[in-house]
Structure formats: structure tokens, C-alpha cells
């Protein structure tokens, strides 16, 4: 099964349009989380390889930045088409290394490809501005230029989309990139490189360097004066480290970090719609998403109905190898991820929570954990503070709107919040009081290439997607003119 799927997936470093071994010959294993078997051995970049990748990006920079915006846009559009043509193959590679169900992987491939289509259209809309200085009468001429080489660091939970969400706008802006994918899931991006080559991306414009020495390799690049942008998606802890590193050379940072999303269900909500939304907000990617609903706050009058219906839906999900038909719930990405979920559920139960469904780790092999609903969760449960990153819905009740808002905001994170109510004025009133970068109002999903994705507080800096996403890769230049 693996041999067929992985036969043509490259496993070396992609630098300057060529496949290269690591300078010290180092490699690391990639594991299928459903079987715990090794499925590939991938070259592990060294600091020397990272320098070679920045050299390649530098060599490509002038040519790429100098291409007409329409040409860059057409290459991105072609990339979208090539990915969609081979969508099923990419989806299977994602499932193999990440574990998520094929349905989730197919959704991810389409979402990932959309960033190329969207930014194909944005490449030609890098507009500036001309105005007259009020006092001197000089002309203020403003244009946005490619910021320079961008280092991209991505997580394992969306091996395709978290990378294309950065590559698309960077290339549209005219920036070459060096991407370091997560060590758990390096194959998807390596597999994508021939597709980008086919689409016409020139050598050196996109470089991919998986590495087991992430800290050293990324640090070396951030201390290379030629690197001007660092775009990171991952944990708040690592993001904070990279912000410190970026400070040394004043590298422009874009940070998409952790989340702890509340999901509010008001008394007047359409409960069936809220259940559908909850299933997406909680279960997309088995809960391994920064946008995953982490804390359900349900009005006390509708709690029992909501909990009963959610339990029925969650209990009906088929768990198994994500490649198999009908499976909705694959394994978590690795043992540490699964252990963390077990720890959080055990902690909540020890503090009085009641398990309505799930909650028991199945026998191996594979890092499986069942869809779980727990209620009566006490306020000091760890899972209310930390990302669960697994298929566990924890429910608490509330009485008043003010209480719901206060508890939803009681977190250091500010990525996304969801709320369900049929009263639109309540929906907008509450949305304005929620300190989150994104709100799902009667919707369980907010991700969209045309929308600015990002968070407040410890959830990050900057936005990805929409027009704003391209600004992360542009510098403003102003020319003061007179004639
Ligand atoms: P992570 O441990 O922070 O790793 C993310 C990336 O950083 C990986 O490529 C990792 O490489 C690399 N890395 C780790 N330590 C590093 C260091 N010292 N210096 C430089 N790079 C380093 O996060 P994760 O566990 O992969 O992903 C889960 C987290 O991502 C969650 O907190 C989730 O909320 C967040 N996330 C946020 C968004 C968003 O848009 N806000 C989207 C998706 C995920 P290795 O794999 O080699 O360790």
C-alpha cells in the first residue's frame, strides 16, 4: 500500500530546483500514525544546507521579483490546477503521514490549492497610492515592494494548507521562500515541489528543507541578513522563541500560534444547526486544529438537549485507518499528542467531570483516541486552559450573556470564537465583545483564503489570507516627489 502511494514522493532536500542529500548525510524516519510503521526516510537539513537554500533563494530573488505580476499570477494559477488534477494523490499522502481521514485530507488539498488561485488573482492588485502633502505640496508616491527572502516554518496538522497559505502570498508579492515543514509530516511539501516546477515556478524561488534540527537550522536563517521575513505557524511557545530570534536582525514576523476556542450556544440557538457546527468546529482534523472548539459553553436551559445530540453524533463516528472507506476519525499524529489528550481527560474526570461517550484509549497499534464528550467539567480542569488538540468536547453551562462573554474571554489566547443564536443583534453584540481575531457566527468553520485569518493576544501577530496576507511579504516604499 505504502509503496504504491509513496513510489514517486521525493525524500531529499529541494534546494535551487534540485534534489540534494543533507550535507552530513543525515536522515530521519516518517511514521504512519495509524500503524506506527516507518513509511519513509527523509534527508535532515543541516545549518550548511539552510545556508545553501538561502543562497538559492537569493540567486532567484531579482528574477522572480522582476517578473511581471501577471506572469507570477499565471504560474500560481497553474499551480492551483496541477494540484487539483492530482488532488487524490496529495490527499492520500497527507493521510499517510498525518493520520486524518481521507475526507479531511481531500478538504485540506482543496483549501491548500485555493491559496494559489486566490493569490494568482491578488498578484496583479498590489496597488500603491499617490497624494499631495498638505503643507509642502510635494507628491507622496507610495508603492509596495517584495520584502525579501522569507523563511516559512509550518506545523504537522495541515501539512499542505499551512504551507500554501504562506507560499501563495509570498510568491504573489515577489518573494522567494525557504520552507521548513514539520518533522512529523515532511512528505506532503516534498511531493508538492514537482507540481510547482511543472507550474513554472523557477529554481530557487521555493526551497524545502525538512530537518530534525529545527531550532539550529531556523535560527541560522534568521541570523542571515538576507532573510527579511519569518512566517511561522505552530505553538505559542516556539513562536515566542522565534520572535526573540527575529529581533536580532529585525526580521519582519508573521505568527499564527495556538488557540483555545470557545463555542457558545445561546438559549435561542437552532440546536441542530449548533450540533452541525460543533461537529465541524470540534472534529475537523480530529480536533487537531488551532481553530478547534476547545470549550463548549451552553445555556443551562438547552444543555441537556445539546449534550444528548452531540453525544449521539460523536458516538456514531467510525474510527480507523484514515485511508479506509467511511472512516471519519483517524489516529492522532503521534504518541505525545495522544498522551496529552489522555492526561487532559483523566485530569478533568479526577476533578468531577462525567464522560458521556468515549474517554478510553483503544489497544494499538496506532495513536487512536475515540470521539469523546464530557460534561460537568470543573473550572480548574486543565483542558479549559490548554489546547486539547484531540477529539474531546468539554461542556460547561452558563446562565447569562455577560457570563458567557466573560468566560469565553478568560484565556490568554484570541484566535477564534464560535457562537450560535437566532438573534442577529445578540450575535453581533456578543461578537464585538469577544476578544478574538475571528468569529464564527452560526458557523463552525471560519477558514477561507479570501478572509484574514489570525488571532489576538498569545494567538499571534499578522494575518494570512485575503489582501492582508500579501502585506506580510511586502515593504512600503514612499517617494517624495516634486517637479
Ligand atoms: P510546534 O511544535 O510549534 O512546531 C511547529 C514548527 O516549528 C515545526 O516545523 C517544528 O519543527 C518547528 N520548530 C519546533 N521547535 C522549533 C525551534 N526551536 N525553532 C524553530 N522551529 C521550531 O507546533 P506543532 O506541534 O507542530 O503544531 C501545533 C501548534 O500549531 C498548535 O499550538 C496549534 O494551535 C498551532 N497552529 C496554529 C495555527 C494558526 O493558524 N494559528 C494553525 C495550525 C496550527 P519540528 O517538527 O521539527 O519540531
List the helices and strands and how they pair.
Layout: H1 2-6, E1 13-15, E2 18-20, E3 27-32, E4 37-43, H2 47-66, H3 69-85, H4 87-98, H5 102-122, E5 129-132, E6 139-146, E7 149-153, H6 161-173, E8 177-180, H7 187-199, E9 206-208, H8 214-222, E10 227-233, H9 236-248, E11 252-256, E12 261-265, H10 271-283, E13 293-299, H11 303-315, H12 335-350, E14 354-357, E15 372-375, E16 392-398, H13 401-409, E17 413-414, E18 416-420, H14 424-433, E19 438-441, E20 456-457, E21 460-461, H15 466-471, E22 474-481
Parallel strand pairs: 7-8, 7-10, 8-9, 10-11, 12-13, 12-18, 13-16, 15-16, 18-19
Antiparallel strand pairs: 1-2, 3-4, 5-6, 6-22, 11-21, 14-15, 17-20
Helix pairs in contact: 2-8, 3-5, 3-6, 3-7, 4-5, 4-7, 5-6, 10-11
Bound molecules: NADP nicotinamide-adenine-dinucleotide phosphate.
The CATH class name of the largest domain reads: Alpha Beta
Number of helices: 15
Uncertain segments of ≥5 residues (pLDDT<50)?
none
| Main sheet characteristics | 7 strands, mixed
Beta-strand percentage range: 15-25%
**What is the tally of beta strands?**
22
Q: Which structural category fits the helices and strands? A: alpha/beta
Oligomer: single chain
CATH topology label of the largest domain? Aldehyde Dehydrogenase, Chain A, domain 1
State the distance separating the first and last CA atoms. 70 Å
Amino acid at each position: 500500500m505504502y509503496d504504491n502511494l509513496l513510489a514517486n514522493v521525493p525524500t531529499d532536500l529541494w534546494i535551487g530546483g534540485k534534489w540534494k542529500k543533507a550535507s552530513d548525510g543525515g536522515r530521519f524516519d516518517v511514521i504512519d500514525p495509524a500503524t506506527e510503521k516507518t513509511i519513509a526516510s527523509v534527508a535532515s537539513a543541516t545549518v550548511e544546507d539552510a545556508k545553501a537554500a538561502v543562497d538559492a533563494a537569493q540567486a532567484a530573488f531579482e528574477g522572480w521579483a522582476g517578473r511581471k505580476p501577471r506572469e507570477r499570477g499565471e504560474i500560481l494559477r497553474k499551480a492551483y490546477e496541477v494540484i487539483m488534477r492530482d488532488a487524490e494523490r496529495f490527499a492520500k499522502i497527507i493521510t499517510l503521514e498525518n493520520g486524518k481521514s481521507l475526507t479531511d485530507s481531500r478538504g485540506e488539498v482543496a483549501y491548500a490549492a485555493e491559496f494559489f488561485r486566490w493569490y494568482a488573482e491578488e498578484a496583479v492588485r498590489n496597488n500603491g497610492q499617490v497624494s499631495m502633502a498638505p503643507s509642502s505640496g510635494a507628491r507622496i508616491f507610495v508603492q509596495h515592494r517584495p520584502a525579501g527572502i522569507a523563511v516559512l516554518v509550518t506545523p504537522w496538522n495541515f501539512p499542505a494548507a499551512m504551507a500554501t497559505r504562506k507560499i501563495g502570498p509570498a510568491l504573489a508579492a515577489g518573494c522567494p521562500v525557504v520552507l521548513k515543514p514539520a518533522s512529523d509530516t515532511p512528505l506532503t511539501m516534498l511531493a508538492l515541489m514537482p507540481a510547482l516546477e511543472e507550474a513554472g515556478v523557477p529554481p530557487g524561488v521555493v526551497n524545502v528543507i525538512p530537518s530534525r534540527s529545527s531550532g539550529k537550522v531556523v535560527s541560522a536563517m534568521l541570523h542571515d541578513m538576507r532573510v527579511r521575513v519569518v512566517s511561522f505557524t505552530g505553538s505559542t511557545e516556539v513562536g515566542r522563541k522565534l520572535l526573540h530570534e527575529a529581533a536580532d536582525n529585525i526580521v519582519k514576523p508573521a505568527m499564527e500560534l495556538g488557540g483555545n476556542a470557545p463555542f457558545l450556544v445561546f438559549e435561542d440557538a437552532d440546536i441542530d444547526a449548533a450540533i452541525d457546527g460543533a461537529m465541524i468546529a470540534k472534529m475537523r482534523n480530529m480536533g487537531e486544529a488551532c481553530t478547534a472548539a476547545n470549550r463548549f459553553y451552553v445555556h443551562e436551559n438547552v444543555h441537556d438537549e445539546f449534550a444528548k445530540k452531540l453525544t449521539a453524533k460523536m458516538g456514531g463516528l467510525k474510527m480507523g485507518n484514515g485511508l479506509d472507506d467511511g472512516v471519519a476519525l483517524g489516529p492522532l499524529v503521534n504518541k505525545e499528542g495522544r498522551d496529552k489528550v489522555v492526561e487532559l481527560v483523566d485530569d478533568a474526570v479526577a476533578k468531577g467531570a462525567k464522560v458521556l461517550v468515549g474517554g478510553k484509549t483503544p489497544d494499538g497499534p496506532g495513536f487512536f483516541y475515540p470521539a469523546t464528550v464530557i460534561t460537568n467539567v470543573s473550572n480548574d480542569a486543565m483542558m479549559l486552559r490548554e489546547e486539547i488538540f484531540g477529539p474531546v468536547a468539554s461542556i460547561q453551562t452558563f446562565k447569562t450573556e455577560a457570563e458567557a462573554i466573560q468566560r469565553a474571554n478568560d484565556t490568554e489566547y484570541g484566535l477564534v470564537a464560535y457562537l450560535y443564536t437566532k438573534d442577529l443583534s445578540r450575535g453581533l453584540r456578543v461578537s464585538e465583545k469577544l476578544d478574538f481575531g475571528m468569529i464564527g457566527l452560526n458557523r463552525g468553520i471560519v477558514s477561507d483564503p479570501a478572509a484574514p485569518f489570525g488571532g489576538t493576544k498569545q494567538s499571534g501577530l499578522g494575518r494570512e489570507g485575503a489582501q492582508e496576507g500579501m502585506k506580510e511579504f511586502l515593504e512600503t516604499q514612499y517617494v517624495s516627489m516634486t517637479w
